[in-house]
Amino acid sequence: MRDTILYLKNANIYQKNLLILSNVNLKLERGAFSYLIGKTGSGKSSLLKVLYGDLPLLEGEGGVVDIDLVSLKNSEIPILRRKLGIVFQDFQLLTDRTVEKNLIFVLKATGWKDKFAIGERVEEVLDSVGMGTKKHKMPHELSGGEQQRVAIARALLNHPALILADEPTGNLDPETSNEIMILLKNISKKNHCAILMATHDYSMIKNFPAKTIKCEDGKIFHGDSEELFVINE
Ligand SMILES: Nc1ncnc2c1ncn2[C@@H]1O[C@H](COP(=O)(O)OP(=O)(O)OP(=O)(O)O)[C@@H](O)[C@H]1O
């Protein structure tokens, strides 16, 4: 289906030969926002890793953007990564170069050659996350929230149809976390980009309601934030 940006069907998720999640069925449409929740060790990161090609999909079916995960070869992983934006808890910026050079590095590594186009795209994504004036700063000169904004800008460089975010607010204070959530929600709306975000942070889920995919006891359960709070309160 054209509007399905991500799906898993009867998928089993393994770490080495340990079965982490069984019979996973999920689907995300273009522009959708869903949380991936569950206790520590319940399999959220493992699930995301399968989706960005860091773990193989050994059993079941799955696809991300227009790439089939079952037949994905190692040599095709860079193609998959180019179609995705990935955001991590610890930002993962290159610490030895400026914000601008971090972004240029990714554009060049993903095949961009035209200097003018590269410069323009860097400006565009930095402006879109409110970091237009910070391009000459080194990562260590930025706050955690600013570093995460740059990491989000980096994720946007190649116009992804899907962003996978693994605890993107995990290292941030509540106020900064709210700002990052507003940014991610706006990106999802404006760019019609689907976002799957792993989080532990229930106050975030309460403030920004969305569908939830919960990992528990080796399985996943679909719901939404409201149900979650009815059950918990
Ligand atoms: N590299 C690995 N090798 C073997 N087992 C692993 C590896 N990484 C994770 N696991 C195991 O897989 C299970 C799921 O871990 P995972 O990191 O996916 O959980 P999580 O829900 O993302 O946890 P957290 O919220 O703490 O990040 C855990 O039992 C963990 O010990």
TrEMBL record:
Similarity-based family: Belongs to the ABC transporter superfamily.
Domain ABC transporter: 6-231
One GO cellular component, as annotated: plasma membrane
Superkingdom field: Bacteria
One Gene Ontology term of the molecular function aspect: ATP hydrolysis activity
Keyword Cell division: no
Protein name per Swiss-Prot or TrEMBL: Cell division ATP-binding protein FtsE
A Pfam family this chain is assigned to: ABC_tran
Annotated function: Part of the ABC transporter FtsEX involved in cellular division. Important for assembly or stability of the septal ring.
Alphabetical UniProt keywords: ATP-binding, Nucleotide-binding
Organism: Apibacter adventoris
